[in-house]
Amino acid sequence: MSRAKRIMIQGTMSGAGKSLLCTALCRIFRQDGLRVAPFKSQNMALNSYVTREELEIGRAQAVQAEAAGVEPDARMNPVLLKPSSDVGSQVIVNGRVRGQMSAADYFRYKRALIPEIRAAYDSLAAEYDVIVIEGAGSPAEINLRENDIVNMGLAELVDAPVLLAGDIDRGGVFAQLCGTVMLLSPSERARVKGLIVNKFRGDAGILRPGLRQLEELTGVPVLGVVPCLRVEIDDEDSLSPRLSAAVAHRPLDVAVIRLPHISNFTDFAPLEAQELLGVRYADSAARLGAPDLVILPGSKSTIDDLLWLRESGLEAAVLRLATGGTPVLGVCGGYQMLGERIEDASGVEGSLPQLRGMGLLPCSTVFSPEKTLTRTRAVATGGPLDGAVLEGYEIHMGVTERRGEPFCRLENGEAEGCRAGNVFGTYLHGLFDSGEAAEKLCAWLCARRGIRKEMTAPESRRDFRERQYELLAREVRAALDMDAVYRAMEEYA
Asked: Among the options 178, 396, 429, 446, which is catalytic?
């Protein structure tokens, strides 16, 4: 069996930029003529993706695979945890649901997953030249060191060199990097072949005295200062800055409800690329205001999030807007909420056996233990998106019975989703990725407001992302000592 070279990116904390750096390295190695695959043994995220084999993985690994120029594969993320509460998650192994576990139960169980993680890694290593491995959180969480399967425990398992990244944008980067290295065991510290200062703004020259002292304290060289990059790459989870960042004023206002268990909010990134659309996230009735479009996104806990909408006053605010003619779009869990009723007699979500929906669409949903995972193409039927070609995937528990007009028709001829007047619902994640649906939606909203819009040829999300991957790779290659990265991989070859 051939053995791929490997490099692992770990971070001082969640949000340090590990995913983005791994994405950059995937594209850089591809540019250098190598066959490269990403790998993250355990991912905790609500943004997920359905592979061609209809298996579920973290969105970040799908993005990294695309940057590497390869098809996303369940082996790239053998364990995916989708939080359903503050203390529990749905556990997905090799793309399929393994069960629902509390944090304590999973902590005891995860060691049993090591053979499956190792098998997934070894299978990839037999097919590729380089594996880019992403850690999770921080390797310095000393309470979690026992049975670690995603940071230094994984590095030891596959014998990988490590680059440690710290986020200077959040402050305290020298303490982050130095403290993390000091909390590692001697054998773990020996694996750290370089430090990366990430998300820097300004003149890197002013950092040099601190970088020299950091190297003296840790005995590890600083391999680069990566600037705070202006690239549009799909985010991994709810730490995404786009969920809290202010939006520059644009003629049209699109408000996405920021549900407590929001999932796959990357669905709406293509709308942000429309120059006339200002996409923002609202978590209260006061912040919702009076937008031109309201979007209810996907949710990992539909019933709990619908109850939150009800208790927070957001449901009443959305109902008032819809009654007044404001368009409302629901995707996946948001679609289920817009219906008349949600039934959960099987206890899939485990909170209530039945709950009244918002009543904006003539449909109802019955949850079942079996999870729907499928990729498909469709054509919108009627409404503002009529005729638009849609590319997407479904990830949901439950079946929705529609009694109204469908939102679209799938490539197999089946009707999907529901629409009634100015309210629309669909299970299709990624429905705006083709570009055509986003262009038509923007044109329709402009016409409603009397805004003149020139119709342009839509750019697919794939083409847009390709340009972003190239930009990302160029900036990171210029900032990192890639010769040192290659030497670290050679040392462990």
From this structure: 429
